[in-house]
Amino acid sequence: MNAKELIARRIALEFNNGDVVNLGIGLPTQVANYVPEDVHITLQSENGFLGLAALDPEHANPNMVNAGGQLCGIAAGGSTFDSAFSFALIRGGHVAACVLGGLEVDQQANLANWMVPGKMVPGMGGAMDLVTGARKVIIGMEHCTKNGDSKILKKCTLPLTAQHKVNLIVTELAVFGFADGKMVLREHAPGVDLDTIKAKTEAEFIVADDFKQMVISQRGL
Questions:
Q1: What's the whole-model pTM score?
Q2: Which tens digit of pLDDT belongs to each residue from 62-111?
Q3: Would residue 142 show up in a list of annotated catalytic residues for this protein?
Q4: Of 89, 126, 153, 199, which one has the fewest beta carbons inside 10 Å?
């Protein structure tokens, strides 16, 4: 199991029956593959879907794509609408949770995930609306950069997407939450000890009293 699958399998356990959930492009899209079969959620896409579903290759519609521009399907009973209505859902607090990737998150629950200065980017998409409108903001990302630098920092160095909005960070090493203005280490991945997490995390954090091993979705295993 690679790092991205581990992250997606852990995030998949965060939802409840009836939740409307927005999954960002990239790693977050994998989460849908691992939601337990007895948990029924509705996937929302900011380009105008409720009831986003896996692609059926035999009935692919070239005009039906998700927010990342990938061909997708729609579940029975799903609906499509314009972007104005889609963002009214998001801004109105009707999305229970959103799952986004991250470039950096800091110990103040700030998120940077939309641009790197000097590099061409496709745009911020719906991230700024999602992190302020969704009731729970989950960031799924690898713990360190390709150079081995921590992506969980004392203070973000990249332009911010939002301030004080992250509720949960899930990496291949650990799960962090936030409480009373502090970052809290809640879980460690199998085979990962506390010293390893400390060595790879720049941010200051406290360890939860019930610090435990991460449980992941068993769907498809």
A1: 0.93
A2: 888 888 788 888 888 999 999 899 999 999 999 999 999 999 999 999 99
A3: no
A4: 199
